[in-house]
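Task: fold both queries, return tokens.
Query 1:
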Amino acid sequence: MGELRRRGEAVTGEGSNTFVKSHDDTINELKERLLGHKEQGPKPGMSNEAKAAKDELAKDPYNMENIYALGCAYGDELHWEKCCNVLLRGWKRIHESSDLDFRFDFLSKLCEASCKLEKYRQALAVFNDIEKPDAVEDVRAYYILECQVFGYNKDFQRTLDAFHNAINGADFGTALGIWAACLKSLKLGGPAVSARCTMDKLAVSDEERQKIESIENLVEMGGGFRYGHQEDEELVVLRRRFTIVAVVVASVIIILMLYWLETRNLDRLKIARK
């Protein structure tokens, strides 16, 4: 079952084939996204790998390894809706497997697909079914995934704790890759400033501090992330609520003024008749 493992894809949430990305790889990817050089939508058609995985699943529709293989193939092609739908078929059956590594990989991929589709509550429910692994690499992957999921669900403290656990004992290069992978969720969850302070403490040279700055600047400029856009939507909702409240208050004031004027006019008429 080892050939089915795809830890790098699950933990970074960006479809890489390594545990964490180097600074140069991260910078290049963010630049490609910012400049529109990298396709963001699903790849057209179906790859040979996906077709083969689909055929295998058709032969044995309840085979969990086949379900996972097809889900991964769809994920590789950025067909996240298909990936999620396939993996959901095995979600509640995954604990039938006695292989802890396979359970971790399966649920991590479903978590990733749920996050890609912005089904953050679903991602949280899936994450809660993941057992904390024993291997050092998997433990770090677990904390990265925890940081992402709880960040998307805007749990400040859990997001920050997960980030600190993920970089605990890591060298600067590894910590930088983890921070880049978690930066969107850190911003959504709230503790981005605290996480940045932690990263600044890890940096021991101007070059390392510049690496932190360059990654964050690219993210802020919109390198594939929608943090600023989502904040704008929240502001729009708040403004709408404020407008509604203001209209209601103004209406009540106008009604009270009209009532007062009407009462006053009636009192004048009574006095005139006397």
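Query 1 returned. Query 2:
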Amino acid sequence: MPALQQLQRKIRSAADLHMVVRTMKALAAVSIRQYEDAVRALDGYYEAVELGLRAVLRDHPLAGCAPQSVATVALILGSDQGMAGRFNEAMLDFAVDWLRRDGNRQETAECWVAGEKAAGGAEERFGKVDAFFVLPTSVQGIAAIVQEVLLRYEKRNTQGLCRLLLFHNRPLAAAAYEQQCRLLMPPDENWLRQMAGQRWPGRCLPMVPAPWQEAFPALISEYLFVTLFRGFATSLAAENAARLAAMQRAEKNIEELQANLQARYHTLRQTVITEELFDIISGFEALGGAQGPMAKAKKTTT
């Protein structure tokens, strides 16, 4: 009986854990949808900013005029919550390898991290975390964290020009994800040259009423904001995709454990019932054997 009670407790615990995993799985699926919808909603605005840059750069190409930066700031997007597999470890390893291939040691680059779970690993790999940002819990909080990053970068540029690299995961099909690096500031010269060389999509050529010295920085600021917003949104979508995959594996393991526990419970219960039946039969036979001579003696006296 104690063994049966212990198995029953394990079965109840497995059922409770299964319910928690299914709830987290559903939340991850819903979160992926909202972040992917946010990225798609920005596609039109992103294209409008690119068209504005193409219009400005059409008559004032800036390729080759960007000042060279000597310092590097690596902004790494991780996660604040666990149960996402190797989401943070894969991102940090990718950032270290990318900086090494780029000719920068990770100890010399400034490390900015968004996500509590990634901060510990970044401190081990980079030596220290120069800036930490708390990830938003919904789409509505992304704009505030993007503004915080931009203000921090503007303050950092007062100490000397530096380039800003964005490292983040982006979701793929079937709840998978991959690592990505983007140069945010200063704008890449190849990208500027490509923007300036593209043909205008319409027959009417654009006219920019504002001076290009004002229009270009304004458009670059909007481009930087949109790119950072999309980076945070895609990273959060990839995080939930990783969590969804982890919950799917956990759900499969729990279901296998439940089936195993149920089989063990039924086998043990059948064994206990069989032993009890044998005890009853043995007791009955023993009781019948003891009453047999007494019944014969009583019959003889009568």
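Both queries returned. Flag for query 2: Strands lie at 71-77, 110-114, 131-133, 162-171, 177-185.
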